Amino acid sequence: MYIIGITGGTGAGKSSAVQALQTLGALALDCDEIYHQLLISCPDMRDEIEARFGDVTTEGKIDRRKLGEIVWNDPAALHELNTITHKYISKEIGRRLGLFKAQAGTLAVIDAIALLESGQGSRCDIVVGITAPYEKRISRIMDRDDLTRERVLKRINAQQPESYYIENCDYILENKYDTQAEFEEKCIKFFSTLLQKQNIQLFMY
Fold this sequence. Notes:
56% helix, 9 helices, globular, 205 residues
């Protein structure tokens, strides 16, 4: 099974790259989505978060907005949250990859902002970094998450700079496009060529 890692800052366009790989038949593992699912299904992870961060629940559930207000304003707190969650996310990714491999799956993609820092990059055959112009990232996040510019800047500035991905990834795809469809088309062409060189059988949907 060939595993591609997708990483990059929020608002860069990672989801478009993942969608392109899904079109080619890949199993998509979105670490952020898995984290949200585990907040509901994994009491051990919830207990650890509550023990560290205190009252971050609303109606008995972890309130991601409350938690976000803490970690996006405190790099040390964000690191502690990631330390707690990464081990549970990693275990779940391993479980899903194992099931996919048992079903003769040949291509998977792991999508995470902290792919390299969490150790998930070591699972991957290659890591592709997605970058985008700074102002485009800001406007995308403001539209997507209905946030003020100030809150978006706090979120972006709490993450790695673009230079980190350029220095540490095997490939870089720059998303300077105005529409998601344009970037997905670029990604499909890029990954199709890459996978054909690796003799990975593609299952286009």
